[in-house]
Amino acid sequence: MSLEQVPASERIHIGFFGARNAGKSSLVNALTGQEVSIVSAVAGTTTDAVMKSMELLPLGPVVLTDTAGYDDDDAQLGAQRIEKTKRELFRTDLAVLVADAAKPFSETEQALLKLFAQEHTPYLIALNKCDTLEERPAVLPEHAVLTSSVTGEGITALKEMLGALAKTDAPERFIIRDLIEPGDMVILVTPIDESAPKGRLILPQQQTLREVLDAHANALLVQPEELAGLLRGLREPPRMVVTDSQAFGAVAGIVPQDVPLTSFSILMARYKGFLKTAVAGARALKTLPDGAKILIAEGCTHHRQCNDIGTVKLPRAIEKYTGRKFELSYSSGGTFPADLSGYDLVIHCGGCMRTEREMRWRMRTACAQGIPFTNYGVTLAECTGILERTLMQELLLQ
């Protein structure tokens, strides 16, 4: 996969935050060497987040986000812009606080530093417009660098500091690679129906396939209708079978009990760091009373087909499993609500198009309000009666 093809959810997200007219847009343009954002001396020129995907050495593939001023005082839209800026932070891996080097820190900068600490977001401080300084400070604040989009001073240093900040001691995360050995056979059951994207596999299927190959294991891709014949033709049983959650019922009846079985969605919940929470959330489904309110959330936006999983298959499975009718609401893309007080359960998609940081924020938002949080695959496994089996004897929860 080339750098241009790396999905946004797998890129390092770098957000630029600060007060209006601190020079955020100019700094982003200087950092990228491109006219990414409109630049003007008028405060508040950037009114909505501007995003740019690119390769930024030494970090590699990144998404840069230029946000609106955090001190926007527009009577009608200011509060909404500030809220959108705050939401950008929830998906940000590295934050850059852009401040005017010639001015002392204001309440706006202090508020942003407090927010970075609250969200445990690594950050740097770009003391911008340093070309206007009459006298250079003898000592800079911690994590700070002097920058100028006019002269280019500090731009290289800022890149290097971002690269160093991105290098953490966190263990590498895997979808499936740590569960298999070289030479293992893995069967990937990938239905091609009316909801499948034309001419390609969905992202979790692509990523899982790539990790199987990276592990020097073998992958066989098959549709549910051909699975039984494929299994009969194998000399030895596969190491494991991974299926699209929509096919759980059919696949579980075909795969022998001694062959580990799970789904792309369950593996994705593990990869994004919320599988344990998702399992607890799915188990709470049976306790919901008739008429309970459920939010079904999707991380991307797409045209819904007649047999859509979120609006048709999932509600049908839930009603059959519980024997009750619930009040369902939907959200998609970046519109996940911060206030979940009206809901009794949140069922999210696999989250393949959202960063791990954003998925963890969505999970924390629900849990902090006492709302169980789960995902499509775990819910469908629970409704099919095979959740324990798809956790592979609790291996995935370790």
Describe the structure.
Helices cover 33% and strands 18% of the residues. It has three domains: 3-166, Rossmann fold, CATH 3.40.50; 177-267, Rossmann fold, CATH 3.40.50.11420; 279-384, Rossmann fold. The protein is built from 13 helices and 14 strands. By secondary structure, the chain is an alpha/beta fold. Helix 10 runs parallel beside helix 12. Helix 11 (356-368) links the parallel strand 13 and strand 14 (373-375). The strands form three sheets. Strands 2-3-1-4-5-6 form a six-stranded mixed sheet, sandwiched between helices. The chain has a four-stranded parallel sheet with strand order 8-7-9-10, with helices on both faces.
Task: Throw out a few tags for this protein.
single chain; 398 residues; alpha/beta; Rossmann fold; 3 domains; 6-stranded mixed β-sheet; 4-stranded parallel β-sheet; 13 helices; 18% strand; globular
How large a portion of the residues is in β-strands, by DSSP E?
A: 15-25%
| Spatial arrangement of strands, main beta sheet | 2-3-1-4-5-6
Write down the CATH class of the largest domain. Alpha Beta
| Structural shape | globular
Q: Uncertain spans, ≥5 residues at pLDDT below 50?
A: 38-47
- In angstroms, what separates the terminal alpha carbons? 30 Å
Sheet bearing the most strands, described? 6 strands, mixed
Helical content class:
25-40%
CATH topology of the largest domain: Rossmann fold
Q: In terms of structural class, how would the helical and strand content be classed?
A: alpha/beta
The helix tally amounts to 13
Care to count the β-strands?
14
Please name the fourth-level CATH homologous superfamily of the largest domain. Answer: P-loop containing nucleotide triphosphate hydrolases
